Amino acid sequence: MSQPNVLMIGTGEYTTGYVHDSASASDKSAGVVALSLFELRRQGRVASLKMAGTNGTKLPGIRRHLQTAIGDAYHRMDVSVETWPSDQTIRDADAYLAAMDTMRPGDVVTVFTPDDTHFQIAMEAVKRKLHVLIAKPIVKTLDQHLQLLAASNEHNVIVAMEVHKRWDPIYA
């Protein structure tokens, strides 16, 4: 079986460590999601990595940041990633759809976006038979949760919630 491709949707602090045109001042200045996936790719556990946000003009800065914070800091760490929208696009809230269209059934999507966008993004992924990992809260209502559950069962994919604060020392 081939390794899955992974699409990271959301380009903020938890994915990249990049906020307001620079490294975050928090303990996540190198991000968490992209860093973990770069390591999984280095280990041969995932194939290509992709990233979709809404503001393409931020992407060159994100790429530079990832190279400095991760690529230059870790031995043999490839931080290349295919991105959406184009670097010249100021705003495209649907860029993730074009990115999803490059995926194949069984690939994986991570969703680290504002809470009110989780349901729509996850449903689009599930319809494409993509597995989904969503930052908490998974969705905003019980009805959305039940719809997502039914769709994931219908399309035979996994939808899971990631609870990143669980491991932060302040919460432990």
Structure, explained:
- The protein is built from six helices and eight strands; from the N terminus they run βαββαβαβαβαβαβ.
- The protein is α/β, with parallel strands linked by helices and 172 residues long.
- A six-stranded parallel sheet has the order 5-4-1-6-7-8, sandwiched between helices. It has a two-stranded antiparallel sheet with strand order 2-3.
- The chain starts with 5 loop residues before the first strand and ends in a 10-residue tail after the last strand.
Short description:
The protein has helices spanning about 15, 35-40, 60-70, 95-100, 120-125, 140-155; strands at about 5-10, 20, 20-25, 50, 80-85, 110, 130-135, 160.
Q: Which structural category fits the helices and strands? A: alpha/beta
* Helical fraction: 25-40%
Number of helices, where a helix is a run of at least 4 consecutive DSSP H or I residues: 6
Largest sheet: 6 strands, parallel
Low-confidence stretches: none
Q: Beta-strand level of the residues, as a percent range?
A: 15-25%
What value does the average pLDDT take?
A: 94
C-alpha termini separation? 37 Å
How would you spell out the order of helices and strands? Answer: EHEEHEHEHEHEHE
Descriptive key words:
172 residues, alpha/beta, 6-stranded parallel sheet
SSE topology:
Elements: E1 6-9, H1 13-16, E2 18-19, E3 22-23, H2 33-42, E4 49-52, H3 59-71, E5 82-84, H4 95-100, E6 108-111, H5 118-127, E7 131-135, H6 142-155, E8 159-162
Parallel strand pairs: 1-4, 1-6, 4-5, 6-7, 7-8
Antiparallel strand pairs: 2-3
